[in-house]
Automatic annotation (TrEMBL):
<feature type="domain" description="EamA">
    <location>
        <begin position="156"/>
        <end position="293"/>
    </location>
</feature>
<dbReference type="InterPro" id="IPR000620">
    <property type="entry name" value="EamA_dom"/>
</dbReference>
<dbReference type="InterPro" id="IPR050638">
    <property type="entry name" value="AA-Vitamin_Transporters"/>
</dbReference>
<protein>
    <submittedName>
        <fullName>DMT family transporter</fullName>
    </submittedName>
</protein>
<feature type="transmembrane region" description="Helical">
    <location>
        <begin position="151"/>
        <end position="170"/>
    </location>
</feature>
<feature type="transmembrane region" description="Helical">
    <location>
        <begin position="37"/>
        <end position="55"/>
    </location>
</feature>
<keyword id="KW-0812">Transmembrane</keyword>
<feature type="transmembrane region" description="Helical">
    <location>
        <begin position="100"/>
        <end position="119"/>
    </location>
</feature>
<keyword id="KW-1133">Transmembrane helix</keyword>
<feature type="transmembrane region" description="Helical">
    <location>
        <begin position="277"/>
        <end position="294"/>
    </location>
</feature>
<keyword id="KW-0472">Membrane</keyword>
<comment type="similarity">
    <text>Belongs to the EamA transporter family.</text>
</comment>
<feature type="transmembrane region" description="Helical">
    <location>
        <begin position="191"/>
        <end position="212"/>
    </location>
</feature>
<feature type="transmembrane region" description="Helical">
    <location>
        <begin position="251"/>
        <end position="271"/>
    </location>
</feature>
<feature type="transmembrane region" description="Helical">
    <location>
        <begin position="224"/>
        <end position="244"/>
    </location>
</feature>
<dbReference type="Pfam" id="PF00892">
    <property type="entry name" value="EamA"/>
</dbReference>
<dbReference type="InterPro" id="IPR037185">
    <property type="entry name" value="EmrE-like"/>
</dbReference>
Length: 314
């Protein structure tokens, strides 16, 4: 029963996170990327702490509970939440929005590399097609055939890849370091330390002139509604759903559901008038096909080797 609840949560998460790139791209038309990265997580903290106080008022303190209740909550928050959010938001700002949506499908392949480098987990040969097609598909998505420069490469693509590496590390490390914590507690505590990190990043960017200070604020109700959707639903509820799903189904299964994210994102852009180019469609299909091919093989292998379920692939 717990796994079926996890499946439902991941399916819902894929639909919700499919709106992330369109939402961020919309707000970046007027918001500073560093300020948006910080504000969208810091703005979610009151909701998270209120939920934690309401649902776990009898639980031990967030600073002492579990094996992760020490200094490790800081790297989890600063790297996994802070660096991820800052790099992701800035990456979307300096990237074609449809290319950004396609890049979100490469996270399982990126995670396999992160696992190899950080956690010394050998790269399963079943992941090689995903890695190869993710690189090829992402490269094709930047090809521009309508004249001018051949490649629509804006630099943000690299920032997004680094952001996904930070998120991949966080997803595995949080479950390893915070055993004994509920997913709500893991999410709330790491988002808090991540919020501190984001505030520092924004301050440094403002001092260096890379961020506007004071930041420009939207002057219409639509932007505030979009921001509320991103903060409460995509950030607060979304990160909780992710940790919830990984805990109950394992990252192998969880990664399958996230392949829906770029499909939802590109559909939203198409409906709003930003249609993908032929090369972006081909690139996106290659990325998703490679990930699905590898993950379906991993899913079959997991039935005979449960240890594979602990390897981070999303």
């Amino acid at each position: 029963m717990a796994k079926w609840i996890g499946y439902f949560g991941l399916a819902l998460l894929a639909l919700l996170w499919g709106t992330m790139v369109p939402t961020v791209a919309h707000l970046l038309q007027r918001w500073d990327p560093f300020f948006l990265a910080a504000f969208r997580y810091i703005g979610a903290l009151p909701v998270m702490w209120a939920a934690l106080a309401l649902l776990e008022r009898r639980q031990p303190s967030a600073v002492t509970a579990g094996s992760g209740g020490d200094w490790r909550i800081w790297p989890l928050g600063i790297i996994g939440i802070g660096c991820y959010a800052a790099l992701y938001t800035t990456g979307v700002f300096h990237c074609n929005p449809i290319t950004a949506a396609i890049l979100s499908a490469t996270s399982p392949a990126i995670a396999a590399v992160v696992d190899r480098i950080v956690f010394k987990v050998p790269v399963d040969r079943r992941m090689l097609p995903a890695i190869a097609l993710a690189i090829l598909g992402s490269a094709l998505a930047t090809v521009h055939l309508d004249g001018g420069d051949m490649f629509d490469f804006r630099g943000g693509e690299i920032l997004m890849v680094i952001a996904f590496a930070c998120w991949s590390w966080y997803s595995t490390a949080a479950q390893k370091w915070c055993r004994g914590w509920s997913q709500l507690r893991i999410t709330t505590v790491t988002m808090t330390t991540g919020g501190v990190g984001l505030a520092v990043i924004f301050t440094i960017a403002a001092v260096l002139g890379a961020a506007h200070f004071p930041p420009a604020m939207p002057d219409n109700a639509t932007d505030w509604l979009v921001f509320a959707w991103m903060t409460v639903v995509l950030v607060a509820f979304g990160v909780y759903l992710w940790n919830f799903g990984v805990k109950r189904t394992g990252v192998v299964v969880a990664s399958l559901y996230l392949n829906l994210v770029p499909v939802v994102s590109i559909s939203i852009f198409a409906l709003s008038g930003t249609k993908p180019t032929l090369m972006q469609i081909i690139g996106g299909v290659l990325v998703i096909a490679g990930i699905l091919m590898s993950e379906l093989q991993m899913l079959k292998a997991k039935k005979t080797d449960p240890a594979l379920n602990s390897a981070h692939l999303s």
